[in-house]
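hey so u asked for the seq, here:
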Amino acid sequence: MYPLNNFKFARLLLLLVFGVTTFSAPLSAHDLNETSAQVILRDGQVEVKIITDINYLVSRLQNNQAWLMGDIEKVMPDNLSDNEQQIVIKKTLKQGTHLMLNNQMISFERVTLTNDNDQHSVEIVLQAKHQFKEVVDISVSFDKSLGVVHASFVKPRYRLVGLGERAEVSF
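ran it, structure tokens below
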């Protein structure tokens, strides 16, 4: 009996071919116009790293309907240079991203933008300082121009690891 005459084998082969062709293509969250953010809490400072598709973000900021719906404060003009676009993006995200620590609003002091020219992704980093000895509560909301944001929250645990030694951390 040939293997292809066996119905179970043929079905398995079909599923295998389907799986390989479907999942072998490179996948990226940015192809789906999704944004990710990482909120990193450190002693005396907090950092919000946002990674998004620059083309999607610019199109949202230039969208008249988004302005009419109240998703953006004002429409970014079409004829801006890359540098002028970056200035608008930084200002928009600094004003539209809200961070609270221990139920107190924290203002961002610095915003940097790094554009990956090979891809269409951009990393925007918002930085703020705080005076809390212990942070027990973090609240963040993102500017609507970013769309849905997949956020993760990180509180690093620092250890000095000597040569040949092992560090152990409990969560």
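Residues 20-31 have pLDDT under 50 and may be disordered. The longest helix spans residues 7-23.
lmk if thats what u needed
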